[in-house]
Amino acid sequence: MCEPSIRTFLAAALAIAFGAFGCHQLDFSPRFEKGEIDIFDDLFSVSVADEKHGVAVGYYGTVYWTDDGGETWQKGITDTTRLLYSVSMADAQYGWAVGQMGTILRTEDGGASWLKQPNLKGEQGSHLFAVHAVDPSTAWVVGEWGTRILTEDGGKTWQDRSLTVDMQHPQFVWLSFQDQDRVRQGQKVYEDVGLNDIFCLPAPGERCWMIGEFGYIFYSEDRGVTWNRSEILGEIRTDPIYFAYDEIEIADGDVARLEEFAAAVADEQHLNILVDPFVSPREVATLIEAGDPSGLFDVIEARLAEASSVLEEAGILTDRLRKPNKPPWDFEDFVEDDATFLERYLEGRTSIRPMLRVGIIQNPYLFTVRFQDDENGFIAGLGGVILRSQDGGRSWTYQDTGRKQAFYSVSSGNGHAVAVGEKGLVRYSGDGGDTWRAPAERDFPPIFTFMRDLDFDGHQRVGFIVGQEGMVLRSVDGGNTWSQVLPPAEDGKGA
Questions:
Q1: N or C: at which end does the chain have fewer Cβ atoms within 10 angstroms?
Q2: CA distances to 41, 45, 88, 97, 362 from 58, in Å
Q3: DSSP code at position 23
Q4: Single pTM value for the model
Q5: pLDDT value of residue 272
Q6: What is the reported pLDDT for 413?
Q7: Quick check: 356 and 325 in contact, CB under 8 A?
Q8: Is the distance from CB of 407 to CB of 423 less than 8 angstroms?
Q9: Helices 252-265 and 294-313 meet at what angle, rounded to 10?
């Protein structure tokens, strides 16, 4: 069986897209008729409106819907072949689905038929990775390039509240000259980050949460009017490595500390390591000659190389090392259009003493966020990551699941939680997330393919898990036990 390539998930579900193409013999003939499911396509998202009504979406514009609690499923009419990455039902009748190239669809009959909704992200061709229906009139959508858009009129119009770059943003200095000019002129330049999920509590709740790549986590206490950045706790730290003037060699004691640090994070593959250089005012004053910073840059580069060598020899893979503030050797290309570029770089790299800061970048790749109430929620991510918050999303801690495979989705309620992911990965928690275990064989069918999403009704009784080749699992006891309902048993694939 083929699994979704995780890198194809680059901006959330795009990876599943390519993985899906690898799993199918392509057939581009129209398949828009309502009714029987003729081809069991990969499913990427499911939304459960109530104990009777659920909708799942996925590959090639696929929509499955049920109005009898999952006993039977029918194919919805979408009139699109674009991949649908997310679906959210406001109630049993109204909902949205989103996907490739700015695709937004709306249903008003429980998923049986869908109409496209024009929007600015469709014009820009941005992929949309998640939608959350707050009510029949209101929905949030997030996606690549910092996409964050809102409708309050059922999708007739969409407000662009996407993440953008200004002159103080860290990404500004790396923009093209044309984009830098656009920023200076007050035009929108979108941040190069994929937002992968957004979730809001039902009314009268006011809280929402949003996540993405690079460990992006935001929370809102006013239903998205304002957003605050969350903090991931449990960071592993090491003291700075200090140097004498114009020195590049790392002392033996500092080498030992770096090796100890590397040993502590070697198995935490989801964590990358920041190596951040700083120089002294004396070095800035004496190693830059006639406006030429190459002498200073040589020293910074050598110190970075020394630290990298120690970490790599201690078992840290090169692709886990991050050096965002390495010398900009091509600074002259930027100075022509941005006269203060080098000045700003040096200002940010100057400290009382020359040093390197080495620490963890909390940037796990995150797929799904869910909260059961104002305070308690979970996030599922790449590398076996489950994050837990007990303070409304202000802070998060890593949970020990004992796995390094990707968790794609998580849901919780009534004191227990379920997380699913790649290659049949599933974990239960019966104590609110303190501990995680595999389900008993009698409680969960053998699955060896990816499970992309799960959702429960508002009472946390009826739930569905969806995944590869049209797989739908159902629980009617709050997630304690599961059975496979699609593909049906008569096709030889049922439980």
A1: N
A2: 7, 7, 13, 10, 30
A3: T
A4: 0.79
A5: 83
A6: 79
A7: no
A8: no
A9: 60
